[in-house]
Amino acid sequence: MKQSFEKRLNAVAAAGGYLLYGGLKGIEKESLRISADGRLSTTGHPVGLGSALTNRYITTDFSEALLEFVTPAFRTTWEALHSVCDIHQFTYSQLGDEMLWPASMPCRIPADHDIPLARYGSSNVGQMKTIYRRGLGYRYGRQMQTIAGVHFNYSVPETFWGVYRDMLGDEASVDDFRSEQYLGLIRNFKRVGWIVLYLFGASPALCKSFTGGKASEMKSLNAETYFEPFGTSLRMSDLGYSNQNQSRINISLNSLAEYIRDLSNAITTPEPSYEKIGVKVDGRYRQLNANLLQIENEFYSPVRPKRVTQTGERPTAALQRGGIEYVEIRSLDINLFDPCGVNQNTMRFVEALLVYCLLMDSPKFDDAELKEISRNQTQTAIKGRDPEFRLSRNGKPVSIKDWANEIIDGVMAVAEEIDRHDGNDSYVAAARMMREIVAEPDATPSARIIAELEKSNTGFFDFSLAMARNHRDYFAAIAKPSDVSSMELQKEAVESLRRQSEIEASDTISLDDYLAQYFD
């Protein structure tokens, strides 16, 4: 496999044209709004941020208090980071005394019934979005849905595909070839995705107010804090998103047709435990339906194949229409030590890692490998920094350092090719930094968090609240966004409210009929 990778990378480099430079990347970053004393905000979505339904840059996720920042797609990591920073600054200008919680694991979280669902207005599509979230609350608990993360969206430069297809001698159409190659990338990312948890995991501890999953079985760091001494990303463990509720849903990644088929089946297959919840009870929807998945987005995976949808189009229909357009990486924790929650070194490493995954051989999955992949992820999340911990590779134990260094060798080679365009070493420097972190686990964000908690003798809540205040002050102190950026965000907020009103005024059918048509 290593020889195949090197052969392909060398061929890409020999083709010229800097085929790997300038892939599009965008960030989606979630953040809970909190009051000045650190508690979950109970106020509505700030009007100054516009409509959560239609604003292209600032929306909400599960809760009215869970903001989601969405950047456009950019060719450079600097542009993406700059955009995230601008959105943070603009948001803070509208928050008053509130702040943004800086961690993935939620703050001093209230009981489920006191966690407000996101609201999107009176339109049919707006009500559908809220009903979907109400269903998530019934199915998994609302606390679990307040966990936040960073998503990294990436597409290889468009000029790459035709050249690479000819290079491999593939006779498929460019669209079919692109989809097949992206699925190979996704399979390989699942194989090596544990390295993202190890390097960037930043949720080894949480507040004891969070009672979701298996939190009560964890060790106590102090009176207010649960933790795992060698944990990296509890968010990505059985405690967080990788819960058992979806463990029986098998979605194939061996072909796009199988992926669409399996996801469609899950959306149409009744689930007895969800039928007990009820769909519409006493005239009020509890969930969109009682199937294994209400809609495609309910299926959690650390990586997803994606295509931009048209108005009213379902994700599976979009994929069937035009194939895979980009991939979405969902396994990044919010980095407490970065005011924006993510930095350029993280983006550069992940981008080069994705290209590495693309150029490697990617055999189809079988059941044994899928179990091995699941075990590697959950165990890395819980005890990845344990010196005694071993991953499983082809059924055999392997040191996390040995495998990580092998991956970084490949990432480094990709980074050198990306850097050739600018004549600098920014991508190589990012890979070099990750190699140093592999050599010294105490430098990982997760280890730094545990060290800070022990050194300061504070709980996770107090530590994170202090970081929230630091981040607020940081955004108040740095240079303001450019006039163009500021005006764009302000204009979008105003225009989004107008678009929401137009959507609400254009509804001509009942909610019941709208949902029936959507699922037909």
Classify the helix fraction into a percent range.
40-55%
Number of helices: 17
Shape: globular
- Unreliable spans are none
Number of domains: 1
Mean pLDDT: 94
Gap between N and C termini, in Å?
Answer: 44 Å
Radius of gyration: 22 Å
Briefly say what this structure is.
The chain has 520 residues and is α+β, with helices and mostly antiparallel strands. It has a single domain, classed as Creatine Kinase, Chain A, domain 2 (2-Layer Sandwich), CATH 3.30.590.
Which short descriptors sum up this protein?
single chain; 520 residues; alpha+beta; Creatine Kinase, Chain A, domain 2; seven-stranded antiparallel beta sheet; three-stranded antiparallel beta sheet; 46% helix
Could you characterize what this model shows?
This protein has 520 residues and is of the alpha+beta class. It has one domain: Creatine Kinase, Chain A, domain 2 (2-Layer Sandwich). Helices cover 46% and strands 12% of the residues. It has 17 helices and 14 strands. The protein has helices at residues 2-14, 77-92, 124-140, 158-168, 174-192, 194-200, 256-268, 272-277, 315-322, 344-359, 367-383, 400-419, 426-439, 445-456, 460-477, 483-506, 511-518, and strands spanning 24-34, 58-60, 66-70, 99-100, 150-155, 205-207, 219-222, 225-227, 280-281, 284-285, 303-306, 326-332, 390-393, 396-399. The strands form four sheets. Strands 1, 2, 3, 4, 5, 11 and 12 form a seven-stranded antiparallel sheet that branches. Strands 6-8-7 form a three-stranded antiparallel sheet, with helices on one face. Strands 9-10 form a two-stranded antiparallel ribbon. Helix 10 packs across helix 12 (400-419) and helix 12 (400-419) packs antiparallel against helix 13. The longest helix is centred in the last third of the chain and has 24 residues, at 483-506. The protein is globular, with a radius of gyration of 22 Å.
